[in-house]
Write a structure and sequence with these properties.
alpha+beta; Jelly Rolls; seven-stranded antiparallel sheet; four-stranded antiparallel sheet; binds 2-oxoglutaric acid; binds fe (ii) ion; Oxoglu/Fe-dep_dioxygenase_dom
């Protein structure tokens, strides 16, 4: 479709799915996406490699590398005790700034990011068969918002309610460059990824295949 009249933008307006849950399509430029993908490749070279976490005796289909704190079900540690015992990379300052800007963008409040200092990021890689079941992000002791960035293939993101993993929920298509923030009354909403749409990554985003998702969080942990 022609982009002469901004059809692509008109088709994907920003939207609040529920109080505190805001989707901002196309927030990151292609250049920013490619830069982040280059950082992702550095992160996966160590000290802790990309790995599939074990949940209930099964490997997740999604592979994860963490920054700041290492996540495994259902706790955070500084060392990747379930991988190779190494201390995870620090949380980059640029990502703190990006997280703050994301909150300003999502809320329209120029001060929304002032007190936001995420200290962990889960960086997930999905190949086109990977999925993530409905879950809450509740291993953090803080209820500060989660800031989610997507790069690469489009996925179906299922955003549900705070009571259980079932309906009501809504499916949206999170595409490369999209921002999604869930905080406030939506902070503990169930969510998941039922499908990744193969070969939908835009040229220039830095990924030929697959999808990267970064969720920044505040652990509320000390040490
Ligand atoms: O991949 C996504 O968009 C969501 C990831 C997620 O829910 C998580 O890492 O907890
Ligand atoms: Fe999650």
């Amino acid at each position: 479709m022609s982009t002469l009249f901004g059809d692509d933008l008109v088709a994907r307006p920003r939207r609040e799915l529920a109080p505190g849950a805001v989707w901002v399509p196309g927030w990151l430029t292609l250049e920013q996406q490619a830069w982040i993908v280059a950082r992702f490749r550095e992160w996966t070279r160590g000290p802790v490699p990309l790995r599939a976490a074990m949940v209930g005796g099964h490997e997740m289909s999604v592979k994860t590398v963490c920054l700041g704190w290492h996540w495994r079900p259902y706790q955070y540690t500084r060392e990747a005790v379930d991988v190779n015992g190494n201390r995870v990379l620090g949380f980059p300052d640029w990502m703190v700034r990006l997280g703050r800007r994301a909150l300003v963008e999502a809320t329209g409040d120029p001060h929304a990011g002032d007190d936001y200092t995420p200290d962990t990021a889960l960086v997930n890689y999905y190949d086109d068969t990977a999925r993530m079941g409905m879950h809450q992000d509740k291993d953090e002791r803080s209820l500060a918002p989660v800031v989610s960035l997507s790069i690469g293939d489009t996925c179906t993101f299922r955003f549900g309610n705070t009571e259980n993993r079932n309906k009501p929920y809504e499916d949206i298509a999170l595409a490369s460059g999209d921002l999604f923030v869930f905080g406030g009354p939506s902070r503990l909403a169930y969510h998941g990824i039922p499908k990744v749409h193969s070969r939908t990554a835009p040229d220039g985003c830095g990924l030929d295949t697959g999808r990267i998702n970064i969720t920044m969080r505040v652990t509320g942990l000390a040490g």
